[in-house]
Amino acid sequence: METLPRISGGMDLPRFKPGVQHPPVTIALPATLVFPLIGHQGRALQACVVAGEHVHAGQLLAPGMAASAKGVVRAIEDHATAHPSGMTAPSVILDVDHTRESAVDASSATLDLAGIVGHGGAGFSLSRKLSTVADRCRCLIINAAECEPGIACDESLLCHDAGAVLEGIKALITYLQPEQCVLAIESDKTHAITSFEDALKEGKATGEIRVLALHPTYPSGAERLLVNQVLKWQGLERLPSHQRPGDRGIACINVATAHAVAQILNTGAATQRLVTVNAHEACTARVTLGTPVQHVLDVLGALPVGAQRVRVGGPLSGFELADLAAPVLTTCNALTVATPVPEEPVLPCIRCGDCVPVCPMGLYPQQLFALAQAQDSKGLQRKGIDRCITCGCCDIACPSFINLTTHFRSAQSRLREHAETERAATHAEALHERHRERVARDEQRTIPGTEAPTRTAVSSALSRARARRKRSG
Amino acid sequence: MSEQHTRRAVDIGLLRQSTGATWRATPVIMRQVILALLPGIVLYAYLIDARVLLGLTIAVIAALLFEAMVMWLRKRPVTSRLGDGSAAVTGVLLALSVPPGLPAWQLIIGCGVAILLAKHVFGGLGHNPFNPAMVAFAVLIVSFPVTMTDWPMTADPVARVALGDPAGTWDAMTSQTPLDRYRAHARITTGDTVFTLSSPGTAWVVIALAWLGGGLWLLWMRVITWHAPVALLVSLGTCHGLATLISPTAMPIGIALLGGATLFGAFFIVTDPVSGAATPRGRLLFGAGVGVLTFLIRQFGSWPEGFAFAVLIMNAAVPLIDRLDRPRVR
How far is B123 from chain A, CA to nearest CA, in Å? Predict the structure, then answer.
């Protein structure tokens, strides 16, 4: 095992990993599962099933969205989603068929990745990620870094199911044929590291997969930072800002996604994920995707009482859940049931610059904040707003308790929306331009004798018509 | 597991505490700045003039009253803003920048200028483009040039020798900042004269070292960063060093750095976050600019001490520095 140096920027947060010591608790299937038709970055998906249709586990409900259990589609209707805004979205509601699933012939199962959505933060489609590096994969990075306090599902996965993870990684190696494969994990997760290394020994893959230990700094597990760390370790140049990891033949895949690949190999469908549940008793829950949060907490006896609220994700990346009917999906890594703490009143920004050294991306959050308040889109872009990974380090560092990341998130979505309309407008303009050209060309091509009627011809025709009407009337 | 324990997973406030951000909130920082000034203030009162204490009291009360008044006029919460201590720090910095014998009404006008004209006209805390204390200083020195240059030095043997009154027959002498003595008269070789603690010439140096000590403490407490002070001292020292190479009668580096407002300004004025640059590179540029301008005004300008004007000019350049300093995105 080799140790990588600390990232520049970021924060050394206290280690708080609830529920890793006990094996995961499997949550029984609920009566209904919910699959919101939303893809990566909020893109709407088109359902490819209809109400009343029987589906089996692993069947695609929409491109990039697979059913996680056998059942009947009850309806496609608006349903609460686990989204910071508390919005509802058209969702496939599935009545679960609790009769025993016919055994899947694991040997015939092919690696069908269409339905796997990355289990990391962004929920990017796995098949699309793999297609960017297909045939030229130089390095496969398995991301087991999980540096935010309060989230421990990946650590728990490695501690208690390292064998399946290894199986998934091996399948990915067979598929991608990378020159090198590394598993990156924070150095303070000693149990997980030992457990994975034992699995490596058992699976005789010690030479195949190298374990890289990261300094436990938040957010060293962010894709871009991790890729740059690994590139530096390999003695290569880091990614320039316009390049994506795929452009350099690097695939960075979350450890839980690798586990999902193993699930497909064994059962034909990736149906479950681990979720850290912080309640009066912390545990890791094995939840079928699409299970309403309500059901998970009910089974664990952890439904919120009184002033308690449910938070999805950690203290930095997470948000308060508006409706408990929202389903657990691939990106949901932790649920916390607690009484929210009133936040300190926000003070004016005094430009102290404390946010600058902690930004892992090397941005100037203070300036971005001022530009976001002034709604200066050009300035924001000049100062690299699109590079912000909204990790929340500046929020913690800010002595005036300003929630900078909230401003950046909305600025980013506003800019994205703006770019979208701009693109649509340019497209419409191009269409119009082409139409005008075509009309002009047609006019030039007009054969003599069939010219468009002149003004006098039109008026004389009108007067003839009027005279005719007068005669008949 | 207790609710207290679960809270760790949701409470950003706890993370702020664990990383020390709550120790850097504006009110805490302001209290630390005043604390860092205390040794210098005590030495000032003891060695130079005890009237500085009266001046400090008047300035702080006036600044707080102006702040309260303007917050009330702007229909903003009065008590919370007074509690952040920024107005008090402005009052303290202004009182320490003016001669201790400045008439109270002039000092109060200065506070009014600092709080109303320099700060709240632009939107209050966090929005003032110019350092309020320096704006007030500039307004005062232009409006009341006589009282603003009335520095106590009656007990200073060095000055007496320099001014031609070694016997001490004059009742009082007025001059501009102690630094001015070195400007106006021949160089005083420190080897010939024995400095004692009671003589203001050395007293000013002792106080300057007290400012330095307070500043280093602020650095250690991470209230300020090293960039602006170091850039200022290096650029000012370099300029004076080059000047001594060219002309032997120029002000020696030691006096340039220890005399006048240099150390006080380096740790308590150019480190003002609001009116200064906010990024490491910007702060280097800002401090260096103040250093060069201070030297130019001292050497070629008609003012004895160019520090306040140098700071104001560089304050005006901060938006430009902010704009030019592009982040090196990782």
Answer: 10
- φ/ψ region of A390 (left if φ > 0, alpha if ψ in -120 to 50, else beta) reads left
- Residues of chain B with C-beta less than 8 angstroms from the C-beta of A405: none
Contact A349 B126 (CB under 8 A): yes
Name beta bridge partners: A287: A273
Query: Topology of A2-99+109-273 in CATH?
Result: Rossmann fold (3.40.50)
The C-alpha atoms of residue A28 and residue B75 are separated, in whole angstroms, by 57
Q: Whole-angstrom Cα distance, residue A289 to residue A275?
A: 10
Size of interface A-B (CB pairs under 8 A): 159
- How near does any CA of chain B get to the CA of A296, in Å? 17
Q: How far is B103 from chain A (nearest CA, A)?
A: 32
Q: Which of A156, A470, A157 is nearest to A282 (CA)?
A: A156
B window 216-245, beta carbon within 8 A of A:
225
Name the minimum distance, in Å, from the CA of B253 to any CA of chain A. 31
DSSP symbols for A446-465: PPTT-PPPPHHHHHHHHHHH
- A54-55, strands of its sheet edge to edge: A32-36, A88-96, A71-80, A54-55
List the domain boundaries for chain A. 2-99+109-273, 274-338, 346-437
Chain A residues 295-324 with a CB less than 8 Å from chain B: 311, 314-316, 318
Rounded Cα distance between A43 and A125, Å, is 12
Task: Answer whether A348 touches B (CB < 8 Å).
Answer: yes
Give the burial string for B275-310 (b: 16+ CB within 10 Å, else e): bbbbbbbbbbbbbbbbbbbbbebbbeeebbbbbbbb
For domain A274-338, say whether CATH 3.40.50.720 is its number: no
- What SS3 state is found at A328? coil
- Going residue by residue through chain A, which has 473 residues, state the pLDDT in tens, using 9 for 90 and above: 788 888 888 888 888 888 888 888 888 888 899 998 887 767 788 888 888 888 888 788 887 788 888 888 998 889 888 888 778 888 999 888 877 655 444 444 445 555 567 666 666 777 777 878 877 888 899 999 888 888 888 899 989 888 888 988 988 888 888 888 999 999 888 888 999 888 888 887 777 888 889 888 888 888 888 998 888 888 888 888 788 888 888 888 889 888 888 888 887 777 888 999 988 888 889 998 899 999 999 888 888 888 888 888 888 888 888 888 899 988 888 888 888 877 778 888 888 888 999 999 999 999 999 999 998 888 898 888 988 988 889 988 888 888 899 899 889 888 888 888 999 999 999 999 999 998 888 888 766 665 666 777 788 888 888 888 888 76
